[in-house]
Amino acid sequence: MQIDHIGIAVRNLDGAISFYTDILGAELTDRYSNPASGVETHVAVIKAGQDVIELLSPTSPSSPIAAFLKQKGKGVHHIAYRVPDLDKAISELKEKGMTFLEHTYRTTHLGRRLIYMNPRHSEGVITEFCDYPEKTSF
To answer: What sequence ranges are listed for the domain VOC (predicted)?
Structure first.
């Protein structure tokens, strides 16, 4: 298992992109919107060296990112861990008593399969597990 990316909730996506690219010298590698119910998020993928940051901005008031911003404010939303096989990892973690937010299981346009673990297991840190069945890198 390794860290795949850090998700950061932002209120101003263009301003955040500018900070990471113009000030820190990172590279914007992708930008897209996910209109799916329960997601409703604009995403900007930033590559900083070998590390990846996803900047997340809500597209509607019902977006989980909108709820996060309202409750906790802008900042780190989640840490994503890449596993070799998501289904196997979920099974093994369930055997250890971990539970998941089953409604979050999905495949992104990048081919990444993901699910969020219930944050009660990780001291409130939102934890994503993901794999890339068709790719070997982000």
So the answer is: 2-132
